[in-house]
């Protein structure tokens, strides 16, 4: 049952006067009104029955403190019990009791949903916009990788553990020993990795077949374990080592940091205001997440806070037609470098004239016609590949000094381009200007935010297991860095106004 406790100041409340005015938590409390949290989470509590619960606002503030200072559940309760600044931020009297640390974990798992955290981020940003603290008109987007809170295992080891779990679950349910089971193969002694995987797969399938014949209605957990093992084996990605790699954290996946290095865990994608560095939206995917997949949701949350987007910054991973179209629909300028995977024209060899719709080679030969094509392709989403074939003049090509070099299949040179290449060419030319190069330097600010999240707010490694837990951790970390940044902006504004005030007094006296 949710019962709102009286916040009447006690005699000891005067101790909070010792806290400096420029303290980060005092600045945050003055800038942001957290009262909306109680209304946001009130439907998750019973109105008339049950024991009185701690206010959602208090519990959320404890989680914010935890991520601001990168503390554990136990440590944040311990610190808050004697730290005056923590108690002031929590808006309770110094002598008031704090909740048990176990309640903090239960609140985070059972009461605080992902969408609620999104709404908290939006509301905090909205308050900053309305109060004039946030005035940015440009945003940047990026992803950062987070290591899972467990190690990745080979398919052989996973199959060994699956077989062991099935056998143990059956013994616990039936109190019987299984007979005629083969010994666990010594897969580590097999030098051929493919052979080792096949040996362990045969062993697991034998265990499943043996135990399945003995299962009954009295062994539901064993049946569940068998179905889980079958589901994992049937997934093609599992044997290719791109699927599940841990039975503890089944949502974590292997992802790429670069061409030569990989990681095991999750990817967090967020949008941040470029100049004032306030995070406006956060989404989380597994390690194999493709950058920009959730950009529509991220933009929706960003716009919901009342921000106006005039400039959009991103790296090459976001140079895709679908993303560029969304930015264009916002009437914003996209500062995203051309990606070689999307735009494959060698501009040292070819140039394009938009007015005449002609391509020119490095020797000045021009195309005389073009033809649209559409053919089947398994590697595309819709199963088709489409584009244009531009044809150079046959007679001109035959007389060209580079004829033997570039016309390998026929005497006539054909330039094959994708359906979006013409639009990308215009973008590529605009990115060669000094204005674009100077503007794009602003995107570097998001790299500093990535480092801050990892080094000081625990986003380098997952604290728990599963995608939902990781998503909550990422959003709480985003709220923490936002609150810190809001306090910094408030302090800077205060110092600026203070200096102006002193100058005014001096001018007035003289």
CATH architecture level-2 label of the largest domain: 2-Layer Sandwich
Tell me the span between the first and last alpha carbons: 64 Å
Structural class: alpha+beta
Overall helicity: 40-55%
The global form is flat
The radius of gyration computed from the alpha-carbon positions, rounded to a whole number of angstroms, is: 30 Å
- The number of distinct helices, counting runs of at least 4 residues, comes to 19
Order of helices and strands: HHHHHHHEHHHHEEEHEHEEEEEHHEHHHH
Strand content: 5-15%
| Unreliably modeled segments | 499-510
Task: Tally the beta strands.
Answer: 11
CATH class of the largest domain: Alpha Beta
CATH superfamily label of the largest domain: Ribonuclease H-like superfamily/Ribonuclease H
- Mean pLDDT comes to 88
How many structural domains?
Answer: 4
Query: Biggest β-sheet, characterized?
Result: 6 strands, mixed
CATH third-level topology of the largest domain = Nucleotidyltransferase, domain 5
Compact description:
This protein has 510 residues and is α+β, with helices and mostly antiparallel strands. Helix content is 45%, strand content 14%. It is flat, with a radius of gyration of 30 Å.
Task: List descriptors.
single chain; 510 residues; alpha+beta; Nucleotidyltransferase, domain 5; six-stranded mixed sheet; three-stranded antiparallel sheet; 45% helix
Describe this structure in words.
30% of the residues are buried. Mean pLDDT is 88; it is low at 499-510. This protein is of the alpha+beta class. It has helices at 24-31, 36-41, 56-68, 73-80, 84-90, 101-111, 114-130, 155-174, 193-212, 220-234, 236-239, 295-304, 321-329, 394-399, 403-406, 421-430, 434-440, 445-456, 467-509; strands at 138-147, 253-256, 262-273, 279-286, 311-313, 333-335, 350-353, 358-361, 367-376, 384-392, 414-418. Strands 1, 2, 3, 4, 5 and 6 form a 6-stranded mixed beta sheet that branches. Strand 2 (253-256) and strand 3 form a beta hairpin. The chain has 4 domains: 1-112, no CATH class; 117-151 and 260-337 and 431-510, Nucleotidyltransferase, domain 5; 155-239, no CATH class; 350-425, no CATH class.
């Amino acid at each position: 049952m949710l019962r709102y406790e009286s916040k009447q100041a006690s005699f000891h409340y005067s101790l909070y006067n010792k806290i400096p005015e420029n303290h980060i938590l005092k600045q945050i409390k003055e800038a942001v009104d957290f009262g909306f949290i109680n209304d946001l989470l009130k439907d998750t509590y019973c109105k008339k029955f049950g024991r009185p619960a701690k206010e959602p606002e208090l519990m959320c503030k404890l989680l914010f403190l935890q991520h601001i200072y990168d503390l554990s559940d136990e440590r944040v309760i311990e610190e808050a019990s004697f730290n005056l600044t923590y108690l002031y931020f929590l808006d309770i009297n110094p002598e008031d009791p704090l909740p048990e640390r176990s309640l903090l974990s239960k609140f985070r798992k059972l009461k605080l949903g992902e969408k609620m955290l999104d709404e908290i981020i939006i509301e905090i940003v909205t308050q900053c916009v309305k109060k004039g603290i946030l005035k940015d008109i440009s945003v940047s987007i990026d992803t950062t990788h987070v290591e899972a809170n467990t190690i990745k295992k080979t398919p052989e080891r996973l199959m060994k553990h699956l077989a062991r779990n099935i056998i143990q679950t059956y013994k616990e349910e039936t109190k019987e020993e299984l007979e005629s089971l083969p010994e666990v193969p010594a897969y580590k002694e097999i030098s051929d990795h493919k052979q080792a995987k096949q040996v362990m797969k045969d062993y697991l399938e034998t265990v499943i077949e043996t135990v399945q014949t003995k299962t009954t209605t009295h062994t539901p957990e064993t049946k569940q374990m068998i179905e889980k093992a079958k589901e994992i084996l049937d997934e093609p990605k599992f044997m290719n080592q791109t699927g599940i790699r841990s039975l503890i954290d089944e949502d974590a996946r292997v992802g790429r940091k670069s061409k030569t290095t990989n990681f095991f865990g999750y990817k967090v994608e967020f949008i941040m205001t470029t100049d004032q560095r306030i995070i406006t939206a956060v989404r989380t995917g597994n390690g194999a997440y493709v950058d920009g997949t959730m950009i529509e949701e991220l933009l929706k949350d960003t716009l919901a806070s009342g921000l106006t987007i005039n400039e959009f910054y991103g790296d090459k991973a976001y140079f895709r037609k679908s993303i560029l179209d969304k930015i264009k629909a916002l009437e914003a300028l996209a500062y995203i470098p051309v990606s070689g995977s999307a735009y494959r024209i060698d501009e040292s060899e070819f140039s394009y004239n938009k007015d005449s719709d002609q391509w020119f080679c490095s020797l000045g030969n021009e195309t005389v016609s073009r033809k649209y094509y559409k053919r089947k392709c398994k590697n595309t989403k819709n199963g088709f590949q489409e584009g244009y074939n531009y044809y150079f003049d046959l007679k001109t090509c035959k007389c060209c000094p580079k004829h033997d070099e570039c016309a390998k299949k026929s005497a006539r040179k054909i330039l094959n381009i994708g359906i979006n290449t013409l639009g990308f060419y215009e973008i590529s030319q605009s990115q060669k200007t000094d204005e674009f190069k100077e503007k794009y330097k602003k995107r570097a600010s998001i790299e500093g935010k990535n480092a801050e999240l990892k080094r000081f707010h625990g986003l380098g490694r997952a604290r728990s297991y599963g995608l939902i837990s990781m998503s909550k951790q990422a959003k709480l970390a985003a709220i923490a860095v936002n609150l810190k940044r809001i306090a910094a902006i408030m302090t800077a504004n205060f110092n600026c106004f203070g200096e102006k005030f002193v100058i005014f007094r001096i001018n007035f006296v003289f």
